[in-house]
Amino acid sequence: MIQETTKVLVIGDGCKDVFQYGNCERLSPEAPVPVFKPLKAVNNGGMAVNVYNNLIGLGVDCDILTNSGITKTRIVDEVSNQMLLRIDENDEIQQITMEQLETIDYRKYKAIVISDYGKGFLHEEDIEHISIRHKRVFMDTKKEIGNWCNDVFCIKINNKEYQRNKSWLDHMFNNNLIVTLGDKGARYWNIKKKVKEQIFPNINEHPVRDLTGAGDTFLAGLVAKYLENNDICEAIIFANRCAAWAVTQKGVAVVDRYKIV
Question: For the whole model, what pTM was predicted?
């Protein structure tokens, strides 16, 4: 779906997602907690690595710049797919160096995708440095948003993050803003282009098995489709479909472009 000449760079915090599936058939006699019997473990790349993997799955030629020292282990009941516990290890990672930032050849990339989970790899000044040097930066961030992201081409955040940053985003950010609404779809507006708020609902209902990584899949679908046709609205519609597919899968799943219709 993407021309071979299109290349993307993903930058952000990475992790290893571990899903330990097992059975819970009784309570412990020592305390009112379930006894968990492990059956199998599934390992995937998470956070920025998940965005990268999904872009690859959508046919996009990608590079990635990350520090992926975090491990997230989820203890999950095999039958119900209910998460019982999450264990995070090495939750903070080392900041990207100025040397790494300065060695990026921005000219070779059609877009830069920032997947910022706020774990320490990217600071505000790093994101500002990147967005000043490339005109097409797509960003998903957990940070408090401010003037440091004035030059970001497109910000994608969920509704909770939008509410936390509403004052600045409504009055100061002039580029593409996308707020994901879970099963209700997404909102979009662009003050600079005088595009008023538009709602893009999910067209079809899907059985939700696991929400893990849905935002990463949305971001990957958004970027892949936008680079294909330069139409942000069509890209949002496609991103909704990608995220809707992702939540029907167990754990962190890489999107299958041939199943997105």
Answer: 0.91
Map out the domains of the chain with their CATH numbers.
Answer: 7-14+52-69+93-252 (3.40.1190.20)
Q: Which of 241, 145, 116 is nearest to 186 (CA)?
A: 241
- Residues 261 and 255: their CA atoms lie apart, in Å, by 12
Residue 8 and residue 110 in contact, taking contact as beta carbons nearer than 8 Å: yes
> pLDDT in tens for each of the 261 residues of the chain?
444 457 999 999 999 999 999 999 899 999 998 999 999 999 999 999 999 999 999 999 999 999 988 999 999 999 888 899 999 999 888 999 999 999 999 999 999 999 999 999 999 999 999 999 999 999 999 999 999 999 999 999 999 999 999 999 998 999 999 999 988 999 999 988 888 899 999 876 666 666 778 899 999 999 999 999 999 999 999 999 999 888 888 888 888 777 776
